[in-house]
Give the backbone structure.
Amino acid sequence: MADSPLRVACIGMGWWSDVLADAMKRSGKLEIASCYTRSTEKRQAFAKKYGCAAAPSYEAILKDRTIEAVVNTTPNNVHRETTSEAARAGKHVFLDKPIANTVADARALTAECRKAGVVLALGYQRRKETHFRWIRRQIDDGVFGKLVNAEANISRDRLGQFELGSWRYTAEGMPGGVMLQIGIHYSDVLEYLLGPIKAVRGSLAQLVLPGENPDIASLILEHENGALSTLNACYASASEYYLMNIYGKEATAYYDLHQGLRFLKRGTSTANPVSCAKNDTIVEELDEFADAVRGKGKPEMDGAKATDSLAVLLAGIRSAREGRRVEVAEILNGSSAGSHHAEAG
């Protein structure tokens, strides 16, 4: 059992379920045994594509003792229900980010997994990219000195590439729109590199995409160590783009999608390229999950860390709506009269 592939069931069939399933095939540490989504057509297509059983119901998966874990890509607002049910059935859970749409749901599902003694891992693959790992090693080695500032941008072109009725593009399904959907990846990287975030100022706009959700988002993040960072997220740009610049008193790292990673030390005037081999981040996080289930290590992003990550984005959403600086503790403590509205979207 210890060396056999982890038998998993995939629930929620969308484009990301296929991305994870493809990665599981590359991994070899996980075996897709079953799948379920409410659409008969979608689950049969997934079952055919990945050579697994199409379960008649989620209950059938939960009752199947040969299934050890659930890979959950259901809509955010049912993460609590679907994950808690899996935990009570003794199934480990790999859950796509964000952990939920509210801190209450995030804490509840985390508690259910802890109570049941099952592994809960969250999909935050961006922090595993080799250029960010390289920067983190330099920070740990003291090369950057005091960290002072960072700027990040995560942009995609979604015009004509999304379903208007999809939960991912509704205020109920994805509060804060692009900020919660993809901005969360780089708020996580900023926390990973510069440390915990204590307060946020946010602004949202809807400029290009139809529907009801923001397609532009900007955050100013205050880190506990005093550093400030900015994060821009966009669904309305001409193309895909990623940027992450980290500024320290003694060194600066510049990363962008097209030029890769460059590094500049105090006293020099040239940013030299740093060669970082591209890694399969999604396979790495799934392998980490499978290993944790087998008792080897723990997931890098667990329920508690993912709840803190969610709170940063919810603070940004509240800030944008109320026009003020919002402390992350306010979200985590559930304070202020507008808290339910801000979190529920």
